[in-house]
């Protein structure tokens, strides 16, 4: 096939090094701009930060720059550049198969990006324990899943258990001491002949008809019930982590302060069940870095809620671009390694 | 964590640099061999340190800026040793030792304590992704060093035979660094697809690594298809390395990023 002269001229233009050396700096500058302007915030947030400029900024789609049509045109031109220059230099490419492989693999990657953008679906899948859901909001559309997801259990694992830091002071005798205590444990103070016993730990303290209780296991309002024994006898005392300052009661010689230190989070684990037509098909644990794949969809552990220990935010994604990206990326590395080895052999 | 071995390897890098300096100033080039041996000892000590830290923390020591920077200097010394076998340049040893020393000096200023891994980092991809990127940065640093040497020594007398050797070294190091950078970004994309549910999120760290990649893509094209050599090549490499530095340090401190667990806390 001999392309017409018009086509040849077009390929000549789009495959020219001039276009490459114009596109690369433009892509660099535009990409930098996208990292300086926070992406994907609300119009109000931009108005607050940029004042009158925010209208222009939103008009130019700089709030979602990498998904704007302008940026897509730049990427398309880059792809066209590679394709045309490969075509124009096809004779040379036969001699430099490593270079051909490299350029073709970048085309595969760009294609993968396009497939993801056009056909991919992705959205939050928030669930509380016991709830089911079979749809997500992908962008502005509601997309049905070909199965139903139920959250059976959600656990936030931590490194070690929470530390109850209790400070006790006796202004009268002029001492103060901080210690770490565990429920059920008795500790003798170092500063005075006083023993503290933790009678109970209430992570989410409330008063009910039956008396003090805990509403949940989440540390929303942590409280300790203490028993103090000194030479004068025994007294009981409540301390609360959320209420600032020292707790002093008129009849007590001591004052207290209580701080609950939660250890760092180790992992969030959702126990999921997949249902199809009401029938249970699979059970799986999903945690960060360990998603669940089902019928072309992938379910990820995305987040949790400090205040609600039964709430798990999952993310569902269906992305047919991934194979293109993976194959293209692998071939790109192969092509570059090939070129590098060639260079090592000739020099 | 016992930091004695770290300090010892730090001191050994310093000793290597001192002997390199002596070899040059006293015009005793044969002393270079001694200095290389000391450099090798420093690198071995550093290897022991990293292995101990790996063992003690239970995770690969590439999980925060201290660890990745230490890893980068380890990779730099290793690559310098490998390059030396092909192109034994007199400047290579002292320049590599000096840069290792500088990187470890910055390490001393960072938080060196061991912290348990946050959920996002609990993955085997951590090792592959960060190790490959750090080796890539190390190779690009070698290209940068060659460029500085070129500009300082041959800025005005190109065409010299030894100038050509430095220029060739520069290109080899950049090509290797570019290969590793590409591999590291690809591994990051695979990991992101496992952990965040998307292989590319245009997070600032990702975007800046792509920007750096584009800069080196331009540099290598100019070099290979338009024969930019010598001074021009050296300036390309210096510019490229500025982008590496911003991607590595700047993004952590100046931009908000999903990657921020790896940076300053
Ligand atoms: C004007 C169009 C282009 C021409 C004429 C061209 C030419 C070349 C040549 C001749 C090489 C081999 C260099 C060598 O090893 O001797 C090469 C390598 C490469 N090209 Fe292109 N290229 C073009 C566009 C692009 C584009 C748009 C990209 C992607 C952003 C790209 C990415 C690469 C990569 C990654 C390499 C391997 C690294 C290297 O050796 O430079 N090229 N290109």
Offer a concise description of the structure:
Chain A is of the alpha+beta class and 347 residues long. Chain A contains eight helices and 18 strands. Helix content of chain A is 34%, strand content 39%.
Overview of this structure, please?
The complex is a heterodimer of chains A (347) and B (265). Chain A is α+β, with helices and mostly antiparallel strands and 347 residues long. Chain A has eight helices and 18 strands. In chain A, strands 1-18-17-16 form a four-stranded antiparallel beta sheet, with no helix packed on it. In chain A, a hairpin with a 6-residue loop joins strand 12 and strand 13. In chain A, helix 1 packs across helix 5, helix 5 packs antiparallel against helix 7 and helix 7 packs antiparallel against helix 8. Chain A is elongated. Chain B is mainly α. Chain B has two domains: 116 residues; 148 residues, no CATH class. Helix content of chain B is 76%, strand content 0%. In chain B, helix 6 packs parallel to helix 8. Protoporphyrin IX containing FE sits at the interface of chains A and B.
Characteristics:
heterodimer; A: 347 residues; alpha+beta; four-stranded antiparallel sheet; 8 helices; 18 strands; 34% helix; elongated; B: 265 residues; mainly alpha; flat; disordered C terminus; binds protoporphyrin IX containing FE
Write the layout of secondary structure elements.
The complex is a heterodimer of chains A (347) and B (265).
Chain A: H1 5-14, H2 17-36, H3 43-50, H4 53-59, H5 69-88, H6 90-95, H7 97-119, E1 121-128, E2 132-138, E3 141-158, E4 163-170, E5 175-181, E6 186-188, E7 195-202, E8 205-208, E9 211-214, E10 223-230, E11 233-240, E12 247-248, E13 255-261, E14 265-276, E15 279-287, E16 292-294, E17 297-305, E18 308-318, H8 322-346
Antiparallel strand pairs in A: 1-18, 2-3, 3-14, 4-5, 4-13, 6-7, 7-10, 8-9, 10-11, 12-13, 14-15, 16-17, 17-18
Helix pairs in contact in A: 1-5, 2-5, 3-4, 5-7, 7-8
Chain B: H1 4-25, H2 31-57, H3 65-86, H4 92-109, H5 125-154, H6 161-195, H7 204-226, H8 230-254
Helix pairs in contact in B: 1-2, 1-4, 2-3, 3-4, 3-5, 5-6, 5-8, 6-7, 6-8, 7-8
The complex binds protoporphyrin IX containing FE.
């Amino acid at each position: 096939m001999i392309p017409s002269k018009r086509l040849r001229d077009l390929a000549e233009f789009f495959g020219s090094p001039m276009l490459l050396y114009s596109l690369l700096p433009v892509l660099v500058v535009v990409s930098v701009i996208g990292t300086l302007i926070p992406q994907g915030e609300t119009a109000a947030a931009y108005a607050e930060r940029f004042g009158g400029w925010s209208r222009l900024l939103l008009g130019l789609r700089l709030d979602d720059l990498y998904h704007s049509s302008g940026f897509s045109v730049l990427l398309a031109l880059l792809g066209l550049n590679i394709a045309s220059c490969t075509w124009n230099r096809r004779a040379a490419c036969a001699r430099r198969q490593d270079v051909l492989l490299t350029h073709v693999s970048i085309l595969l990657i760009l294609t993968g990006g396009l497939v993801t953008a056009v056909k991919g679906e992705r959205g939050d899948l928030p669930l509380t324990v016991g709830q089911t859901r079979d749809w997500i909001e992908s962008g502005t559309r509601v997309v049905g899943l070909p199965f139903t997801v139920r959250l059976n259990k959600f656990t936030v694992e931590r490194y070690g258990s929470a530390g109850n830091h209790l400070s006790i002071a006796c202004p009268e005798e002029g001492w103060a001491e901080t210690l770490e205590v565990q429920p059920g444990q008795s500790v003798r103070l170092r500063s005075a002949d006083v023993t503290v016993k933790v009678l109970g730990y209430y992570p989410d303290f409330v008063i009910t008809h039956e008396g003090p209780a805990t509403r949940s296991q989440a540390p929303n309002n942590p409280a300790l019930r203490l028993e103090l024994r000194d030479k004068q006898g025994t007294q009981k005392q409540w301390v609360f982590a959320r209420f600032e300052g020292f707790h002093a009661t008129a009849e007590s010689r001591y004052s207290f302060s209580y701080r609950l230190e939660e250890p760092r989070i180790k992992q969030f684990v959702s126990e999921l069940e997949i249902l199809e037509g009401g029938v249970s098909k699979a059970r799986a644990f999903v945690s960060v870095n360990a998603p669940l794949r089902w019928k072309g969809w992938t379910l990820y552990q995305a987040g949790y809620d400090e205040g609600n220990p039964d709430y798990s935010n999952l993310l569902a994604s269906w992305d047919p671009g991934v194979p293109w990206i993976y194959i293209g990326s692998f071939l790109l590395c192969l092509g570059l390694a090939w070129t590098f080895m060639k260079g090592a052999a000739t020099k | 964590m016992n930091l004695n071995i770290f300090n010892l390897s730090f001191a050994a890098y310093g000793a290597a640099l001192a002997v390199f300096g002596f070899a040059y100033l006293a015009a005793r080039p044969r002393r270079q061999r001694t200095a290389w041996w000391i450099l090798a000892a420093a690198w071995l000590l550093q290897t022991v340190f990293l292995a101990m830290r790996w063992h003690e923390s239970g995770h690969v020591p590439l999980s925060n800026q201290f660890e990745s920077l230490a890893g980068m200097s380890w990779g730099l010394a290793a690559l310098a040793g490998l390059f030396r076998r092909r192109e034994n340049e007199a400047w290579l040893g002292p320049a590599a030792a000096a840069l290792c020393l500088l990187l470890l000096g910055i390490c001393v200023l960072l938080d060196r304590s061991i912290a348990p891994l946050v959920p996002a980092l609990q993955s085997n991809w951590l090792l592959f992704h960060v190790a490959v990127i750090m080796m890539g940065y190390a190779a690009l640093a070698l290209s940068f060093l060659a460029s500085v040497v070129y500009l300082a020594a041959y800025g005005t007398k190109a065409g010299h035979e030894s100038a050509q050797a430095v220029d060739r070294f520069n290109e080899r190091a950049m090509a290797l660094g570019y290969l590793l950078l590409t591999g590291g970004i690809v591994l990051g994309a695979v990991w992101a697809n496992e952990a965040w549910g998307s292989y590319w999120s245009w997070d600032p760290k990702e975007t800046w690594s792509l920007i750096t990649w584009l800069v080196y893509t331009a540099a290598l094209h100019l070099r290979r298809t338009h024969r930019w050599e010598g001074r021009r090549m050296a300036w390309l490499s210096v510019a490229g390395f500025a982008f590496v530095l911003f991607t590595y340090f700047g993004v952590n401190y100046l931009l908000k990023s999903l990657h921020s667990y790896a940076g300053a806390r």
